[in-house]
Amino acid sequence: MDTVFFVFSKIVWALLRPETLFLLVLFLSWGLTWLGRNSAAKRTLGLTVSGLVLVAVFPLADLLMGPLERRFVVQPTVQNVSRIIVLGGSEVPDLTLAWNQAQINEAGERYLAGISLANRFPEADLVFSGGSGALVSSELREAGIAEMIFLSAGIALDRLYIESASRNTAENARNTLTLFQDVPQGQILLVTSAAHMPRAIASFCTAGWQNLVAWPVDFRSGAFWDRVGWNLAGNLEDLNKGAKEWIGLLAYRWTGRISAGFEQGCGQETLE
Fold this sequence. Notes:
This protein is α/β, with parallel strands linked by helices. 49% of the residues lie in helices and 11% in strands. It folds into two domains: 2-57, no CATH class; 66-220, HUPs (Rossmann fold).
C-alpha cells in the first residue's frame, strides 16, 4: 500500500505543480486557436501571462510558506539532547556520482544545522533518514551522500546512524524509529526545512516518537514588500514548494499518515 501511495503521489504532484498548471493553460490556449475560438484563446493566454508576471514580480509563495515556517520556534532553548535527526531532501545524487563529490541543493542548511548541533551536543547520536524520493532511483541514495558529508565533517562513525530506505516523510518517521530499541530520556531534535516541518513533526508524532523538538532551517519567506522584484524562476520554484507542503499535509491527513492536531507538534511549544 505504501508503494501505491508513493507512486500515486508522485504522479498527482507532477500534475498539480503550479508550473505544470501554467503549462497546461498555455496548451489550452494553443488548442483553442486550433478550434478557431480566438477570443477565448486570447483571454486564456492573457490570464496566463498576467499570472506569470504576478509570480515573477511578487513573492506569492510567502503567502503559502509563511504560515508553515512561523509555526515553530526558531532555535528553541534545548538541553539534555540525546538525538539529532536530519531528514534527507537536500542531496543531488546524479551530480554527486558525476563529479565524485557530495552535491547538495538549496536546502543544504539541513546539513549545516546537523553538523553544528552535533558539535554543540557531542554526546548526542546523529541520525540521518533518507533513501530516494524519485520514481526512478539513482544508484546512489541520499543516505550515501549524507554519510560522506557527516564523516568528512569529523562526525565519529560510532555516533552516526543512517536510515536509507525511506521514500517520503511518513516512511522517514516509521523507518527511523526501528533503528532504536530504547526510548531516550533526553530531547530529540528534528532538523528539516521550515515549511516542511509541520508535516515532518506530525509524521513523527503519529509514528510514536516522543520528546521531539522541531529545529527548522532553510526558511524561504520574508518581508513581502522587500522581496518585490523580477525573479520568475526563484518565485515559481518557491511557489511549487509551498503548494507541495500544503497538498502534502492534506494528503497525509486524508490517508491517515498523520493524526489531527500533530501539525502543531506533540507537546512542543509553537508560535501559533
